[in-house]
Amino acid sequence: MADNRRVRMTKKLMKDALLELLEQHPLNKITVTDVCQSADVNRSTFYAYYEDVEALMLDIENDVLAQLPGSPERPDIYSDEKFLSTLKVFFDYVRENERLFRIMIVVRDSDSFNQKLVKAVMERYRRVSGNVDSLSERYAYIYCVSGVIGMMKAWIVSGFPMETHAFAQMVLQLSAKVTT
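^ that's the sequence the OP posted. Answer follows.
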C-alpha cells in the first residue's frame, strides 16, 4: 500500500511539474531534465514510469478524461432538465479545475487532446434520440462539442464571466438548435 501511495505521489509531482512548465514553454521544448529538476526527482525515477515527456503528457490527458464527471453509460433519453443538470456538473468541474483546463485547452491547445475531449464528452453527455447512428446526427454532435470547447476556451480566458448554470443553459439552447 505504501508503495502505491509513493508511486502515486511521485507521478503527481512529475505531472504537476510538467503542467507548471507548460505554462511557460511548449511541450516540444520541455525536456525530461526540466521535469526532473522541477519535480525534484531523479531521471531514473522518471524513466521508471515514463518513456519520455510525451508519455507523461498522455498520462495527464488520460487522467483528465477519466475524471470527467458523469457516467459513461447514458440514460436512454435525456430530458432538457436532466441534460442541463449534467452540463452544469461538467462545467462546474471545468471551473473547479480552472488551471488544469486553462493549460490543457487554452495554453496547450492540442488538437489531439481536443479530439479526445470531444470523443469523451460525446460518450458521456450526448443526448440520445431515436436515430443515434445517423451520420448527420454524429456530425451535428461533433460540431456542437467542438463549438462548446471553443466557448469553454473563451469562458476560461475571460475569467468565467457567466455563472455555470447560465453557461450550461446557453450551451443547451445552442446545441438544441443544431441537433433538432
